[in-house]
Amino acid sequence: MGDSTLSIADFERAMAALFCSLQAKTSREQFQFADSDFDRIGWLLTQVGKPQWGHRPRTYAVLRMIDRIDLFDIFILEGLKDIAFPYTDSRLPLSLSPTAKARFLRAQNSVLTKASDLEKIDGRHRHLDQDADAYFNILKILGRGGSGEVHHVRSKLSLEDYAVCNVASE
Description:
The chain has 6 helices and 3 strands, in the order H-H-H-H-H-H-E-E-E. By secondary structure, it is an alpha+beta fold.
């Protein structure tokens, strides 16, 4: 386990508040997380000494919603990352029970994002309708030019590195 700067009690309070506030917003229908919620979940997991979990905040959210956090290490051992969403029954770890698989598949709709389309390998450039910070962590600036900057970034879903051109809008 890594260094923790947040107590388990503080972590649980923060997570309970986050999940309760989201569920309260949409009490009768299935709620949808915002991309910023996963930044918070990932940060909290890292602060409590679970950096590998912090890289998979969507997986954590689903497992917490179905009360099966005990299954998290199976996802890590199988090398599964949040880019794997949406899962199908056949893509989930084989060691999950049929009941756990069914519950996971039902709950995963709350964590889905359009960001996974950004990483499809077809050689095309992508244009984001919002700030790239929602999908990537900036590691460093690679260069600057008259129309913007090029950043070395890491995907929050796949943990893969990319170059992203940030063009200044006028």
